[in-house]
Design brief:
The protein is mainly beta. It is 0% helix and 52% strand. It is built from no helices and 11 strands. The model has no long low-confidence stretch (mean pLDDT 97).
């Protein structure tokens, strides 16, 4: 079983930046692709970004492409999401996920004020 713990959320003004981190424990993450999802109030969870096991390939939702960057450090068992040019519609709880294991972190709140 792998435990995922997100950090780095907070309140930021539109146009600002935040860096989310996800620390994994209990299992090495190097064997798994990883993803970030988010859930805004009253809305369904949506895919944000994903990265392959090696980190060589990344993919993004259209709504964040060009503004967000996903990366990983397998030596530190961590996943990161750099979020720039934030918009109020980015407000949500952000979750670190390993889809193939069905593992989700509890999430970190990101609030973007206009």
């Amino acid at each position: 079983q792998v435990h995922l713990a997100e950090s780095g959320g907070g309140l930021v003004q539109a146009g600002g930046s935040l860096r989310l981190s996800c620390a994994a424990s209990g299992r090495t993450i190097s064997s798994y692709g990883m993803q970030w999802y988010r859930q805004a109030p009253g809305k369904e969870r949506e895919f944000v970004a994903g990265i392959t096991r090696s980190g060589n390939t990344t993919y993004y939702a259209d709504s964040v492409r060009g503004r967000f960057t996903i990366s990983r450090d397998n030596s530190k068992n961590t996943l990161t999401l750099q979020m720039n040019s934030l918009k109020p519609e980015d407000t949500a709880v952000y979750h670190c996920v390993i889809e193939s294991l069905g593992s989700w972190g509890q999430g970190t709140q990101v609030t973007v004020s206009s």
